[in-house]
Design goal:
The chain has 185 residues and is of the alpha/beta class. The chain has 5 helices and 7 strands; from the N terminus they run E-H-E-H-E-H-E-H-E-E-E-H.
């Protein structure tokens, strides 16, 4: 795949995608499934020509609900996927029917917010100064194992931090909820 993920991996041989402005929630789900899923509004691109240009330059399949845009992109490499549904779970079913795996990645590889690559924090990852941990991160997430720093806990959970925007992620209630929804597809 083109682009430097800074060591983060995505699904092997998975297509890179660009979701148009009508598919923002879908982009987040695809990121959680391990896809490099760019979102039009994150790029400040709404105009059809801008979307077509980004898709072509970055080798991304354009995912859209816009029939005219999909028809224009279909004639270009790498093409387009036209969705007909509005609900994100129905969109995921359409994406799955088109041959994409919509299973939750074993570990996060992309930031759900900005699509940047993530790095593992805590056990089996990089150590972070406790003063650099955001307040929204639970104490047992990304902490040093017991016997380490003063924020050490007996059974720390791993966390991942986006290399682009700095947001932290961990497997908690939201992860379990997304896993349930994807398993039900």
């Amino acid at each position: 795949m083109a682009g430097d993920d800074g060591g983060a991996s995505t699904r092997d041989d998975s297509p890179r995608v660009l979701c148009d402005a009508m598919c923002g929630k879908l982009a987040t789900y695809l990121r959680m499934c391990g896809y490099d899923a760019a979102y039009a509004l994150d790029r400040g691109a709404e105009a059809d020509d801008a979307l077509l240009s980004i898709a072509a330059e970055e080798g991304r399949i354009l995912i859209t609900r816009n029939r005219e845009l999909a028809a224009r992109a279909a004639d270009r490499d790498p093409g387009a996927l036209l969705l007909t549904e509005r609900d994100v779970l129905d969109q995921l079913r359409e994406v799955s029917a088109a041959g994409f795996s919509v299973e939750l990645a074993a570990e996060p590889t992309r930031c759900g917010d900005c699509n940047g690559p993530v790095e593992r924090i805590g056990p089996d990852g990089i150590d972070v100064d406790p003063d650099d941990r955001p307040e929204y991160v639970p104490d047992d997430v990304g902490a040093s194992p017991a016997g380490g720093a003063e924020s050490a806990v007996d059974d720390p959970r791993p966390a991942w931090r986006c290399r682009d925007c700095g947001r932290w992620f961990w497997k908690g209630g939201h992860w379990a909820s997304v896993a349930e929804r994807l398993d039900a597809l």
